[in-house]
Design goal:
single chain, about 200 residues, alpha+beta, 7-stranded antiparallel sheet, two-stranded antiparallel ribbon, 13 strands, about 25% helix, globular
Length: about 200
C-alpha cells in the first residue's frame, strides 16, 4: 500500500512556474520605469547647468514689468552726487563709486576714492577743462549738451572726449577708457555740469 502511495506522489505534476515568472516580469517593468525616470531627471539637470554656464558672463536684473534685462558686467552707472563741490565746476552726477578728486582753476578731476595721483594725471579719470574753440576732431560724432552743439570722439587708445560750446569757450570732458561710460552717459554727465567763475581755459 505504501508503495502505491509513493508511486502516486511521484506522478503528481510539479508546481507551475507561472506565478514566479509573472512576479519577475512585474519587477523588471518597475526597474525599467525607475531607470527611465532617473535618466529624465539627470537630463533636465544637465540642461539647466548648460544654460546657466552659457549665461555665466551676463548679469540679469528684473525690469519694471518683471521681465529680465541684461546689463553688461563691466559698465558703470551714473548716480546723483551729494558731496562737496570743487572750485571751477559743480556736478550733478558721477559714476557710481567715484568722487571729486580735486580741482584747480584749469582742471576738475573725477576719480576712484583710492586714487592718490595728481589731478593733472588724467589716467583712469574723468577730467573737465575749458579751452578755446577749435575744429572738431576727425571722426567725431555730432550731438548736443543742454541744446548746445557738441561732438564725441574716441581715439585709438579708447579715451573718449566730449566737447561742447560754453559762451565763447569750449567745455572739454575726457573719459579714460577704463571707466566704460557710454556716449549717452557721458552726455548725461555733461548736462549736470555748471561752470563757475573760478574756471579758466587751459590755453588760448
Amino acid at each position: 500500500m505504501n508503495d502505491v502511495i509513493d508511486r502516486l506522489a511521484r506522478l503528481t505534476p510539479a508546481a507551475s512556474p507561472t506565478d514566479d515568472t509573472t512576479a519577475d516580469l512585474r519587477r523588471g517593468h518597475r526597474a525599467l520605469s525607475r531607470r527611465r525616470i532617473k535618466r529624465a531627471a539627470l537630463g533636465g539637470a544637465a540642461l539647466t547647468l548648460a544654460v546657466g554656464g552659457a549665461f555665466g558672463g551676463i548679469a540679469l536684473t528684473s525690469g519694471n514689468e518683471g521681465a529680465p534685462t541684461v546689463q553688461a558686467a563691466d559698465n558703470v552707472r551714473l548716480v546723483d552726487y551729494d558731496g562737496a563741490q570743487m572750485p571751477g565746476y559743480t556736478v550733478a552726477k558721477v559714476p557710481e563709486g567715484f568722487v571729486l578728486q580735486g580741482s584747480d582753476q584749469y582742471v576738475l578731476a573725477v576719480a576712484r576714492p583710492d586714487d592718490t595721483s595728481s589731478i593733472s594725471d588724467f589716467q583712469d579719470k574723468i577730467v573737465v577743462t575749458l579751452e578755446s574753440p577749435s575744429s572738431p576732431a576727425e571722426g567725431a560724432t555730432d550731438t548736443t549738451v543742454n541744446g548746445q552743439p557738441a561732438t564725441i570722439v574716441t581715439n585709438s587708445e579708447g579715451t573718449t572726449t566730449l566737447k561742447y560750446a560754453y559762451r565763447d569757450l569750449t567745455v572739454v570732458i575726457q573719459v579714460w577708457e577704463s571707466i566704460h561710460l557710454t556716449d549717452e552717459q557721458l552726455v548725461e554727465f555733461a548736462e549736470g555740469i555748471e561752470v563757475t567763475a573760478d574756471a579758466k581755459p587751459s590755453h588760448g
